[in-house]
Each structure stands twice: as C-alpha cells, then as structure tokens.
C-alpha cells in the first residue's frame, strides 16, 4: 500500500465519520443551545433540564437520519472492500 493511498483512505474515513455524526450532534447541540437560552431568560438553572430534550432529539434524529447514515456507512464499507485488490 502506498502512503498516498493510506492518507486518502484516512481522509475518506474522517469525512464519512463527520458526515454520519453531523445530523445527530448538530441537532442535539441546537436543542441544548435553545434550552440554555430559555434557562437564562427564566433564570432556572437546573442542570438536568437539558437531558431529556437532548435525548429525545437524538432519538428522533437517529430515526429520521438513520437510513441515510446506514447507507453512507455501507457505501464506505463497499468502497473499502472493493479497493482491497488494488492495494497489493
């Protein structure tokens, strides 16, 4: 395996990981930010208040984006398996 090929595979790995994680992480971060703003406005400083909405948001995001995430991971795995003969 050439060093350039290994670097390209690592770049694809990180890009795929970022794309797969982005919807869930982005939505939970947005919900956390909105709840934090509400906490500042109402002066309710309860740390456990953000847990349930973030958990529900992450679950809904996984249900909604799950097929797309699985498709991206499957495409990445197929690409890796098909590249094995050209590595040697």
UniProtKB/TrEMBL annotation:
The family this protein is said to belong to: Belongs to the FliQ/MopD/SpaQ family.
Listed GO CC annotations: plasma membrane
GO biological process: protein secretion
Compartment(s) where it occurs, according to its Swiss-Prot or TrEMBL record: Cell membrane
Highest taxon, organism lineage: Bacteria
Keywords: Cell membrane, Cell projection, Cilium, Flagellum, Membrane, Transmembrane, Transmembrane helix
Bilayer topology annotation: Multi-pass membrane protein
First-listed, main subcellular location of the protein, grouped into a coarse class: membrane
Record-annotated membrane-spanning stretches: 12-39, 51-70
Name of the protein: Flagellar biosynthetic protein FliQ
One Pfam short name: Bac_export_3
């Amino acid at each position: 395996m050439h060093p350039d090929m290994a670097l390209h595979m690592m770049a694809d790995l990180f890009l795929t990981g970022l794309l797969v994680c982005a919807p869930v992480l982005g939505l939970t971060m947005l919900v956390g930010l909105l709840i934090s703003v509400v906490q500042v406005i109402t002066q309710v400083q309860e740390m456990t208040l953000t847990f349930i909405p973030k958990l529900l948001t992450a679950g809904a995001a996984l249900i909604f984006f799950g097929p797309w995430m699985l498709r991206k991971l499957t495409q990445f795995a197929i690409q890796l398996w098909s590249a094995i003969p050209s590595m040697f």
